[in-house]
């Protein structure tokens, strides 16, 4: 994994700055599934050195949808549970307060 902070790029997730606030420029991703689907996720565990990232937005606490990224590894989950969710996704039970906050009209444009 690569951790990026300001202009420093590190090959480990060690902090390259003095942390005076609670936000960090990366997150850990934990995937879990039932044992009978373990083989389906083998391509992800074998993806050593691969990193996914997103373009920062003006709105805080946004992350890319994970299902399209999983699809690129050949994993097609039918139903997902996202803890500490930050937005609403199709076929996903989103647990957290952020999906409600981001339903503001200021997040959308009128067609």
Overview of the molecule:
- InterPro entries: MT-A70-like (IPR007757).
- The protein has helices spanning 42-45, 66-72, 98-101; strands at residues 3-5, 8-10, 80-83, 92-95.
- The chain is α+β, with helices and mostly antiparallel strands and 111 residues long.
- It has a domain at 31-107.
- Strand 1 (3-5) and strand 2 form a beta hairpin.
- The longest helix has 7 residues, at 66-72.
Question: What's the topology here?
Answer:
Blueprint: E1 3-5, E2 8-10, H1 42-45, H2 66-72, E3 80-83, E4 92-95, H3 98-101
Parallel strand pairs: 3-4
Antiparallel strand pairs: 1-2
Pfam families: MT-A70
Q: Could you give a short description of this structure?
A:
This protein has 111 residues and is an alpha+beta fold. It has helices spanning 42-45, 66-72, 98-101; strands spanning 3-5, 8-10, 80-83, 92-95. The chain has a domain at 31-107.
């Amino acid at each position: 994994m690569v951790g990026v902070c300001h202009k420093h790029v590190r090959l480990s997730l060690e902090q390259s700055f003095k942390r005076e606030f609670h936000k960090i420029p990366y997150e850990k991703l934990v995937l879990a599934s039932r044992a009978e689907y373990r083989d389906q996720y083998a391509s992800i565990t074998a993806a050593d050195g691969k990193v996914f990232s997103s373009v920062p937005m003006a709105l805080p606490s946004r992350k890319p949808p994970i299902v399209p990224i999983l699809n690129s590894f050949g994993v097609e989950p039918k139903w997902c549970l996202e803890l500490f969710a930050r937005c609403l996704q199709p076929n996903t039970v989103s647990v957290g307060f952020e999906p409600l906050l981001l339903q503001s009209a200021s997040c959308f444009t009128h067609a």
